[in-house]
């Protein structure tokens, strides 16, 4: 009997693994990721992504972004602020957080912007030249590079 498993939590915290998730749509179990802070993962175009993290009440100085190998970590620490008057209800969380995003190979952080309580991190998939497809010219059997026969084996040296 085959059980269907929801991979949505994995999809939410990974960038650039779209094909992998299409292949593993009915894969093995998963951990339930924490839900703070909330974020959106947006694919802008092929190979271009943006992560928007909602950080109401945080300042730019309270947030740190670290990219190391295939892991992007967003940390935040908000200190206690002395509000004038008595707070009757606190609905905006004032806690520290650490959110990690697993990035696919060759996905790099391009830029980060913090505006109006929203942190936007722009990501781009950059393939090295060696990984990009290249067109190979086909020549006739007579035009092989020197030292190779038409079958690709080295030619015997004349004595």
From TrEMBL:
Family: Belongs to the small heat shock protein (HSP20) family.
Gene: ibpA_2
Pfam family, one: HSP20
UniProt key word Transmembrane helix: no
Family annotation (SUPFAM superfamilies): HSP20-like chaperones (SSF49764)
PROSITE patterns: SHSP (PS01031)
Presence of keyword Transport: no
Record-given protein name: Small heat shock protein IbpA
Top-level taxonomic group: Bacteria
Record keywords, A-Z: Stress response
């Amino acid at each position: 009997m085959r059980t269907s498993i929801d991979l949505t939590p994995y999809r939410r915290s990974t960038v650039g693994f779209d094909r992998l998730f299409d292949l593993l749509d009915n894969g093995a179990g998963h951990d339930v990721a924490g839900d703070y802070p909330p974020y959106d993962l947006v694919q802008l175009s092929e190979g271009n992504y943006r992560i928007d993290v909602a950080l109401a009440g945080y300042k730019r100085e309270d947030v740190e972004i670290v990219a190391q190998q295939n892991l992007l970590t967003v940390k935040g620490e908000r200190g206690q602020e002395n509000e004038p008057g008595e707070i009757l209800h606190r609905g905006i969380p004032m806690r520290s957080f650490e959110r990690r995003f697993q990035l696919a190979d060759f996905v790099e952080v391009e830029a980060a912007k913090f505006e109006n309580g929203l942190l936007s991190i722009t990501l781009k998939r950059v393939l090295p030249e060696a990984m990009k497809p290249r067109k190979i010219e086909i020549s006739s059997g007579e035009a092989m590079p020197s030292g190779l026969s038409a079958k690709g084996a080295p030619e015997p040296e004349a004595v």
